[in-house]
Structures are given as structure tokens and as C-alpha cells.
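RETRY 2/3 - previous attempt timed out on the joint model. Re-submitting the same 427-residue input unchanged.
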Amino acid sequence: MATNTAHTQAPGGAKEPFPPFQQDTFASQLLWLVLIFGALYLLMARVALPRVGGIVAARSSQIESDLAEAQRLKVETEAAVAAYEKLLADARANAQAIAGKTRDSLMAEADQRRKTLEDQLNRKLDEAEKAIVATKSAAMANVKGIAVDAATAIVERLIGQAPAEKSVADAVTEVLKR
Amino acid sequence: MADPIHQFKINKIATIANVGGHEIAFTNSSLYMLIAAGVVTALMVGATARRSLVPGRLQSVAELSYEFVADTLKSSAGSEGMKFFPLVFTLFMFILTVNMIGLIPGTFTVTSHIIVTAALALLVFFTVIGYGVYRNGFKFLKLFVPSGIPIYILPLIVFIEVLSFLSRPISHSVRLFANMLAGHITLKVFASFVTMLGGLGFVGWLGAILPLGLTVSLTALEMLVAFLQAYVFTILTCIYLNDAIHPGH
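RETRY 2/3 succeeded.
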């Protein structure tokens, strides 16, 4: 802690009083303290402290606004996700509706076609049955004629005389009923 | 042994003027005041010039000092005390810087002179009286009359309160001055033991180890003291200012 480097010659070499109590240095110490401390005070009050205070305030407001922005973006994101999910659900429901409708219409068409086809077939069946009945009755009529002829011929051969056509026909009809 | 008082000597660098028998000179004390003011300016003005949103190291230190002093003032004198923020901040930074620079070997400690600490303490004292009277008028005297005291001991209490108020600048200034002075004398004494013993040859070298270690640890202690005394001066200033703002006990 040597201060010998800053040594200047002590006047006269006499024993000096304790330096902090040397009153002849007070005036210049006070003057320079007033000047330098005053200048420093002005510099701090006018320049440094408003500047640092501004920096600190700007930072905290920046952080605040950034946080608010982040919050806003988060809300926006959530809304977008919700909208997307709603859209997805709508699309899914739509697709299901379209599929159902298509299936129903196809089924209805198939039913329609089947029905017409069945109708046609039934009609043809009916016609065929009618034709069969007609044919059958015609055939039965023919059989009766043949049977009457045959019976007449058989009776004529047996008794040598042709029976009355009416009674043969009645007899044949009687037999055919059985 | 080197004179431990020598380090406090005021050395003239240049005589400026003679006013009424008082010699006004630029001295080593003035030089170190100027250096301290320059350091504080460089920190508070220079390091904050860029106004970075993300501060660099020095700007962080500047902001830290700002918030430290602001918190100290606000917690002891309330938000109205922020009116005195520039004064309190300048006091703290000036005293702290001057104390710290004084710890560098070969430098001069401005606060080791009672006239400087007394001037700063009186600045606070008169600011308290001036603002207290300006703000509260006659009610400022309530500072000396605590409420809820029986009337028969009130004169005694008022006498003690006035006395303690008047002795504030003395304790305020002597505390800082004496701490700086004593610390530097102790450091100097132990350091000169090292050089003295070191001159005695090998045995002396061994003997010098103890005072050397003491000097090193004392230097660390003195750094703490340098900060602590600046802080104590500042917080007392805040408490005194609080009295000016809220004089009722």
C-alpha cells in the first residue's frame, strides 16, 4: 500500500498534523467535491438514470407485449385447431351422408328393377298357365270326342246298331267325371 | 517502518487560485474524485449508450446498480422517496467507486478525509430539513414529538430526539470516514511488516508469511467494508429522507 510514488516534498520537514485534519486542504477538497459531485449528479439525473430507467421500462413492456402476443397466438391456434376439427367432423358426416344416400338410391333402383322383372315373369307365367289350361281343355274336349266316337263304334259293333249320340256323350261325360 | 499516515496526505498537483487566504488547488484528492466520477459516468452513460434490449455485461451492471438503489430507496422511503433517486444514486455510486478505487495499492481514498464525508452527510442533512419543512411545514416538528408518550417525560424525549437528529450528520460522516481510515491504516501496517521482515533474510521471509496472508485477507475484508459503508451511507440517507417525507413516528 505504498503511496511513495505520489510523494511530493513536505515543506520544511516539520512534523505535520494528521492529514485528514489539515484545515488548509479543506477549501480545495470542498470546492472540487462540489464541482465533481455536482456534475456527476447532473449527469446521472439528466442523462444516465432516465436512460437506464427507460431501458428497464422498455424491456418490461416488451416482455409484457410479447407475452400478450404469445397468448393471442395461442388462442388463435386453439381456434384454428377447433375449426379444423369441426371441418373434419363435417366432412366425415357429409361423406357418410353421401354414401348412405348412394346406397339407398342404388338399393331402390335394384328393387325397382327386380320388381319389374318379377312382374314380367309373373305375367309370362300367367300367360303360360292360361295357355296350358286352354290347351288342356282343348285336349280334354278332343279326348271326349274321341271317346264318344270310340264308344259309339264299340256299341255299334256289339249291338249292330248306332246308339243315340246324345246318350253316348252323356255316358262318356259320366265316366270322365270319375 | 513506512509511515501508515502518509497515504492520506493531500498532494498539490496544481494551484488554481488563492481566495481569502485559502489556497485552492487541484490535488490528488481532486484527481481521484474526477477518476471516480469518470468511472461512474463510463458505467452509467457509456455502457448504456446502445440501449440494448438484451444487455451486455456492463449494461447489466448499470441496470443492476439502478435497480439495487431504486429498491433500497423505495423499500425504506416509499414511492415518494423516488423524488430523491438521483441524489441517493449519485451518493451510492460515488462513495462506492471512491472506496473501491482507494483499495488499489498506490491510490488515494477520497472518503478517508472527514471534510468530504462531512460535506456529503451535511448535504443529506440539509436536504432532509429543507424538504421536510417544504413538504410538511410546521408539522415537520412532529418528528421530535413521538405520539403516545406521557406528558411528564415528553420534554426529556423531545430533548433526546432533537439531540439524536442533530448528531445524525456526525455519525453519518464519521462512520464512513473512520472505517476507511482505519481499514487503510491496518492494511498499511500489516503490509509494512511484510517488507520489514522480508529485509531480514530467510528467517524473515518465513516470518513474513503470516502478515502477508493477513494483508491479503484484510484486503478482501476491506472490499466488503468499502461496499458495506457505501451501502450503509445510502440506506441511512434513505431512512433520513423517509423522516422528511413521513415525519410522524
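Chain B touches chain A through 61 residues (CB under 8 Å). Closing ticket.
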